[in-house]
């Protein structure tokens, strides 16, 4: 899993699991539906006149449109622009199409590696990897469980080696 | 031997002992002035009313007294210390016990504070600091003057200090430590400030203007509480608001100067025999901070428009443990650039680059002047507009002015920020010039990560924003909108090539031992 440090902003060596787009799409739909359900509940409870206008004619169309935008375009764009490289020396993550953000973290500065798998991720056989460190990198994923384990091992083995050497 | 020392002597045999009972007395004395003010205020208030008002006032005073009594007693009863050869452990809480332990090898600096109430009883508050979270410091609330434990705590700070630790805990260990501590007396003076220097510092640094509003507002609150505001209004009518304003401004300046003289009284920076820096100052509250050179990760040079015109600057060291602005410890409050240059070259040479001081130039002076004017004018404008255009309450106008000041300062500092890398010295230089010029030079090896935002393309363009992340008591970042692509690549490569690990304190619940 060793590789050269990519130039800042360049794509990393690896990409997310193919099922990542499907996972994000389902998450977007569930998020939108939950928000609409909460709004509908509020309308039913309070029955305010302004709610009866703003709810169905403004809030609901905006939510539906944003979910459609996510599903049809943004999630695919995010998938295509998201890449990473993990070696025993560093973790590099690059993402974003309009504004490209790249983060470089030496593995020596990563305190812990956490794998996260909620019910939806589990149903699709996917895992998200999170790095505990100072830099605000919201993890890498979704990935397949095998690749997540390889990443976790690469980072933690390096830490163990440096601690023994230290 | 104090109870704390006895705790250390018997550390292996039983849980720690409490701080000296004098701490209880000191804490009670500390509450007396504010309690007296409360009694006067309640008396003045209840004196205007009937019998029921007086009874209510008495109840308020009694409840306040009881509450102020409970706090120190609870603190004294619930906190115990253990000091032994492996480190220091402080246990707190009566119901839920919490033990915080720090090994000697983890201690990176020691801070000794003597507020006025502790000085009365010849006590010191000692804080052991390491390269970890601010909340993971170990504080010994009261160590008596002359107690061997005090010398021992100072001696143990720093790497390699374990060498002098005797194998057996107890009396001989403390005697050995005391002998070692006597070597601390052999120290070299780096910088000291006399009264004249402090007055200059107060005026150049703006201490006079920063401290004065706080003191004046407190005084106004006291005047209002005591019912003396009417007399002041009478003075305004008699002498005119301009003269009252002039007197108030002069008073504010005097208060600021006096505040600086009291706060930085006998400011001295010395280098101890083992290379550690010792910073001491304070009249009412004496402070002493001993910093391990290994904890220093950079230096910061700052100067405002007045300091720029006078050829002066402030020098601070950036350390892994400090809680000040960007984790800094002030080395010199405001001295000539020649002195700053000499100090950096002689004692902090690893952070000396050609960019450590910005080149003098008319452009920099103009930018500094315009941004300073803007920083003053915009909040004043906001205050004036909210008062004249709409009938906004004064408090909300003041809040709006403060918010505009903070926003302008933050955005201005970010938009003027630059980041440069010196691959030879292996340091990163971060500069901002918005009202105050601030140049921070930190070791590349102290950074924990780098993030960059760029324009998209087949090959990503030059960075629009770069953030470097470092740890100085808590997670902080240096952000810059100007950074060469080449500098960014060099920095990332240096970061991956060599990076230090972060040390942590062991925090155990339900009891624990240092280790």
UniProtKB/TrEMBL annotation, chain A:
Protein name: YdbS-like PH domain-containing protein
YdbS-like PH domain residues: 80-132
Pfam families membership: bPH_2
Keywords: Membrane, Transmembrane, Transmembrane helix
TM annotation in the entry: 29-48, 54-74
Organism: Promicromonospora umidemergens
InterPro entries, alphabetized: YdbS-like_PH
TrEMBL record, chain B:
One Pfam family from the record: bPH_2
UniProt key word Hydrolase: no
Domain YdbS-like PH: 76-146
Origin: domain of life: Bacteria
Transmembrane annotation, as ranges: 21-45, 57-77, 198-220, 240-264, 364-388, 394-415
Keywords in alphabetical order: Membrane, Transmembrane, Transmembrane helix
InterPro entries recorded: YdbS-like_PH (IPR005182)
Keyword Repeat belongs to the record: no
Protein name, per record: YdbS-like PH domain-containing protein
